[in-house]
Records
---
Amino acid sequence: ASFTTALPNSPPAVTTDAATFVTISEAVLNGTVNPNELATMAYFEYGIDNTLASPISTLPQAIGAGATSVAVTDSLTGLIPGTTYYFRVVATNSAGMSEGAILSFDTVAQPPTVTTAAATSITTNDATLNGTVNPNGLATDAHFEYGTDSTLTSPMSTPDQTIGDGFAGQSITDSLTGLIPG
């Protein structure tokens, strides 16, 4: 084991640690900062550019003026699902600024959630198929599969419909014509 004593009037020592609690649109950023005995502020920079050339910054946190490393965390919300984000911890004191290594995490890509509803407007040869699709934040297309086999082993499909990329269920319908009576 070893240790390094703080240098008086030196910039903070920083380490970027792995992100935790990563979900479809949220993550917790982690790092450690040694203030090196000067009043120090710490924050995170993040974005989708792997160089963090134009990063977004979290609000600065005062971490004191001690001589030992302090854990720093910040929660991000509203992230884009299925996206790689890059981040680092940054700290400043009266002696200067220090930037940690750039790390990355991937928000979770969740498949769409679908609900099939009952067919409506059923006639001898026609029917309207109904359902709901929640894209769960990712660009989504949807279609219906149908056929006379209850397991839909070899189904026919309606054309794809663009649903979008929101987080709310959206109705989808499609009309079938020329069906066999009975």
---
Amino acid sequence: AVVTTTGDIVMANAAMARLLGCPAGELTGRQMTSFVIDGDRAAVVEGLAEVAAGGDGFRLDLRLTQLDGRTVWVDLGVASVSATAGRVTDLVVQCSDLTDRKHLERTLADQATRDPLTGLLNREGMARRLRDRGTRAADGQVLAVVFADVDGLKPLNDAFGHAAGDDLLREVARRLRAGTREDDIVARVGGDEFVVVTSLPDKGPDPAAAVVDRLRQQLRGPVAVGREITNLSVSLGASVLTEGDAATAVARADQAMYADKQRRRGSDLC
């Protein structure tokens, strides 16, 4: 497409029209930046102004919104196309559709951070989420880390096969998701080990105890594994996450979980 220095479309070919989901004849006079999603528009406006002032062209990967509302990823390049007495009068805009490539990149990135058996985050995915959201709790809240370890997974695998053990792990994942909020972090970090990071009110001497009690109730009860029914038993431990020290909080929760496992081995608790 050819656009003015202010971004008005002067001419667009059939390929650009298809990319924008608009007949080529109807593009003339439209603002090119009106097709750019809000989050990417400022960078395009700034780039157009720089090229119009005589600067070098630029390229960006960004998202365009078609007339029907669908979003497409494009590689957008802009350069000056003509000048009179050193003054830029028009710009040329070239776009290549990157939608399929971006979808593939997103799929591969998701696979790298997801546990294929349960669909939960894996250890790397949990670390990335913690980096993205930060470890600072809202006022009056604390971030709690809960470490959960499924009891008796190996004997179950030995007795009924690994498919039964997989059924059990998927059920643990389902119950953990059901017992947490959408913005909580729920991850499978080992064969029979899970971690939950959640915020809760900063009340009492041990605020994390409340989330342990809630998840223990959520996990309790029989579960079907293959053709067998077994009681689900999970050891739990928790700690409060101090800002910037997630690894230590996970280690403390792991220690608390191990103490819970030792205590429950001599009792009838589930």
---
Amino acid sequence: MQEIGQQYSKDDRTDPSGFLKRARLHQSVFRAKYLDLPFDTYGNYLTKDDGEKGKNFYDGFGVFDAVKKYRKYNKPLYSNLLRSEHIPFNIFIPLDKDKNYCKNVIGDILKSNIVSIDRIEIEYAPKPKEKYLNDGTSFDAYIEYTNFDGTKGMIGIEVKYTEKEYKLQANSKQEKDINDKNSLYFSVTNNCGLYKTNAIEVLPTDNFRQVWRNHILGESILLTDSDKFQHFTSLTLFPADNSHFIKTSKEYIELLTNNDNKFIALTYEDFFALLFKHCPDSNYKKWLDYLTTRYIVTND
């Protein structure tokens, strides 16, 4: 077995729950024990050579082929086992290969009779962006579906692992839009009817800003393309031990006028359980065993 490698990072100093540290160790053990590969600087990093071979991705269902079409070598995506960038590929590319399987799982999540899954995309943003939020907001994964009554819906998915809130980058377009009450952020928020009256006072803060932007991106599609789509759900997927998103999700729901499939916070544990429940064959069972071993943090 390969060495576990160096574990400490300055990020651990802002990790009061200890989840980041445990997750880093878990990914380092996965690299050393299951992949049997060397590390680069930290234990959770693959070498560039192994990253370019696709070792950060599931070996099956054309996952790495999809990655290569999306982006050439990029260290956070290809070589960092801890960051979440690679996770949408490992989860949603296999689901795209069996849309009936995906339909059964999504139907369970939405508690709705879905007839078909019509489209699955990774890193999706509607175009032209000027018609929607006019910024760089995108969904980590995006699903379009048809309901039993013939109406069309969308799910915009944010996939997290150890991440918490994101700080606002100074002098960015996002900062300008956040501070401009005439920007599309605020017009969409006011027009979609999703939020309670005083919610706008806290939505732009670090805790909620990314959840809010992803949610109103979907709402902007509903407002702009109302002839095509009638439903949008914002779904945040994260490990049960990520206490930040447990807390933030509960507080975010309190800002909504109602939550009839408007926002869903789903843990990896509950999501994987649904994937197992509807698992169609042994090939997908092997994939699910990989997801569980890879992403469910244990006391290694």
---
Amino acid sequence: ATTVTNYTSYYSTYIQNSAVGKKAMTKISKADCQIIFNKMMDDGLKHTTMANLKSCLNCIFECAIDDDIIVKNPVKNIRLPQTEKKKREAVPQAQISLFMDYVRESYRFSFAYPVFLVLFNTGLRIGELISLTWNDVDMKAGTVSIDHQLIYKNYGDGCKFHISTPK
């Protein structure tokens, strides 16, 4: 579901009103595609985001080749602009301890202490945690099965909670 939302956003933001979105598939050039990625870089998007869009476009153009609509894939050898990679760092243990002490001692937030304890000690995503039921817990084996997540999304029927597969 998240991938579909991202691709829809990419389309409406970068493809729909660009040369790629306005031209017949047989007229799209490598330069038309490169402009899209340069704009993404100018907008501050990360290399992985651009790589995801390139992969999606590559699939579309490869299908067009298979269907004899085009002869050559215009994104095949495109070089994505390199962006600065920020190294991700885990929250230092001292900050986790400070946060957990505050939550545990807080009149207002102490009810959430067990939730944060589980999150910090398992690496679960929020949707995975809130979807857990006792059926997911095996006390004898000492395991918890993570095979679904709870998401809040609009699938055309208004925003509602839906069970989905985890990442």
